[in-house]
Design a protein that fits this description.
about 525 residues, alpha+beta
Length: about 525
């Protein structure tokens, strides 16, 4: 029988409560809080990043005036095993304390970054001023929450479930609860949603995962060196536990949305970045649950949307909460399921576009073969072989440690709009090896801009649940998934695909020494692009 989460009053500490004036100014600063991120390529001076009127969509321009001040208190929310979660509670109020009445609630971030939790107070204040109860919480083992941090593990998900149900059970709550968050908080929002707390009605994950193993830790089955500093600073024990689970087992399924996607049933507004490390996961969530997921994908890296590209901020989020938590049918949804910024921009990509689906209707597959002369063409030419030496160092691959294939200069613009799937027909001198695919945009002057990438450990060619060594000298068909993008290659540019054994620090430089050979030309290796025809852009 499922343990029933506590619904008690919890412990509220009014001595640290801040009254109306103290938090009103912080709430005004919400927009700054929501946009303090590193963006993608910055717009040129005097140019507009919006090539269409997509941002005139009523969803993105929605707002309503503040009605209340803000009342803040520290809360210890009880959880089912007798522990508690340290949270900041924000309620509509004034100088006399919380305003009377019952209102919906939002868990505004559920994160292990205790030092950042206070920063979400401005965001919580914005929603409190407009009639929402808000919680900003620190996970078990962070801040004042006792215990041990296990990022996104079953215990953390149970705690998050209990926090939602506690907020719903309070006498000043309507019982309609939402959750949102960025990065860690975005992951938490998606994971608690597949646990289905009864009172969770909608979520807004910003740069959230679909699968912790695949998106972050083991990319294509290869450990990502990029994540280790994060592990050391946030959860050092995971340096041991994650290394002990190199294959996709129950440990990772418990930390996955992908393994339970059929349970992601609440309305979900995904805020994705085309330069973000979780873009593949966000797109996969949409593809699996199109009926209840909307996706906004912009030209930013990890974090809340960059202000210079779009005013996607508290007003749009307020529209979402008013629709699903206040049941206000006048609060708009996005005009389209997909709102996407065609990168790069401005000046090259076309900026904001809206589509009823992803990939956009009209998108088609374009197969380009790796040719004997280093070309990337529809006509594969004669069968041949090419090879490179394995790079075993944490340094960029030298010319003899990579193969480069590229198109001729494009006669017209080409828009990539979706995944790229590569089939690499490779042989190895060792019993295993890594394949790293990097897709680049090469300008006429030779400058190369990285667009997207994908990786695969050869022993994981049949999936990540088992490891099957390769037979040295035998050619293997390796399907290397390359993360999705929405990117315009301008006429005169070239599309380049680089194949190597290493892409440090995105993956570890752990491939065994030796040589890798590729079949090219007819019946050889190729890439399948998802492209938009001119009339669908």
């Amino acid at each position: 029988m499922r343990a029933r989460p506590p619904t008690g009053q919890g412990t509220i500490y009014p001595s640290r409560r801040l009254r109306q004036g103290a938090l009103a100014a912080a709430a005004v600063a919400t927009a700054a809080t929501l946009t303090a991120v590193t963006a993608g390529p910055a717009p040129a001076a005097g140019t507009s990043p919006q090539a269409s009127n997509v941002m005139d969509d009523p969803f993105f321009t929605y707002d309503r005036p503040a009605q209340y001040g803000v009342d803040r208190a520290d809360v210890r929310v009880p959880v089912r095993d007798g522990g508690f979660i340290d949270c900041d509670l924000y309620r509509p109020g004034g100088s006399a304390g919380p305003a009377p009445g019952r209102r919906p609630g939002i868990v505004l971030d559920y994160t292990a970054y205790a030092d950042q939790a206070e920063g979400f107070g401005a965001q919580a204040g914005y929603f409190a001023q407009r009639g929402y109860n808000g919680l900003v919480c620190r996970t078990r083992g962070s801040g004042e929450s006792p215990g041990r941090i296990d990022p996104f593990g079953p215990q953390e998900q149970r705690d998050n479930y209990d926090v939602i149900e506690w907020l719903a059970a309070q006498p000043w709550s309507t019982g309609d609860i939402g959750q949102m968050g960025v990065s860690y908080g975005g992951h938490s929002s998606l994971l608690v949603a597949v646990n289905r707390p009864p009172h969770l009605k909608a979520i807004i994950p910003v740069n959230g995962l679909s699968d912790w193993y695949e998106n972050t830790i083991y990319r294509g089955g290869v450990y990502s060196a990029r994540i280790r500093p994060w592990q050391q600073s946030v959860a050092p024990e995971t340096l041991t536990t994650y290394a002990a689970h190199p294959r996709y087992d129950r440990f990772w399924q418990d930390r996955s949305v992908a393994s339970r996607r059929n349970r992601l049933t609440v309305p979900t507004l995904e805020i994705n970045g085309w330069y973000d490390r979780y873009r593949d996961g966000m797109v996969k969530n949409y593809l699996a649950r199109k009926e209840n997921v909307w996706m906004v994908s912009g030209p930013w890296q990890h974090g809340y949307p960059a202000k210079q590209y779009a005013d996607i901020g508290p007003g749009a989020y307020l529209a979402w909460w008013d629709r699903w938590l206040r049941h206000d049918r006048a609060a708009p949804l996005p005009r389209a399921k997909i709102t996407s910024y065609e990168t790069p921009g401005p000046g090259a990509g076309a900026g904001w576009r809206q589509y009823p689906d992803w990939p956009p209707p009209g998108a088609r597959s374009l197969r380009l073969a790796f040719t004997r002369d280093g070309g990337l063409r529809q006509a594969p030419g004669r069968t041949g072989t090419a090879g490179f030496t394995v790079n075993t160092e944490q340094t960029p691959a030298t010319p003899d440690e990579r193969l480069v294939f590229q198109t001729d200069p494009l006669r017209r613009d080409v828009v990539l709009a979706g995944d790229i799937e590569t089939t690499v027909k490779a042989s190895f001198t060792a019993r295993d090896g890594n394949i790293a695919i990097v897709v680049s945009d090469v300008a006429p002057d030779g400058t190369a801009t990285r667009v997207t990438e994908g990786w695969l450990k050869a022993s994981h060619r049949f999936g990540h649940r088992r490891s099957v060594p390769v037979v040295p000298g035998l050619t293997n068909d390796l399907r290397v998934h390359v993360w999705p993008t929405h990117y315009r290659l301008k006429s005169g540019h070239r599309l380049r695909v680089t194949v190597s054994s290493d892409d440090y620090p995105e993956i570890d430089s752990d491939a065994p020494a030796g040589r890798i050979g590729l079949k090219v030309g007819a019946r050889g290796s190729y890439a399948e692009l998802t492209v938009l025809p001119e009339d669908s852009r």
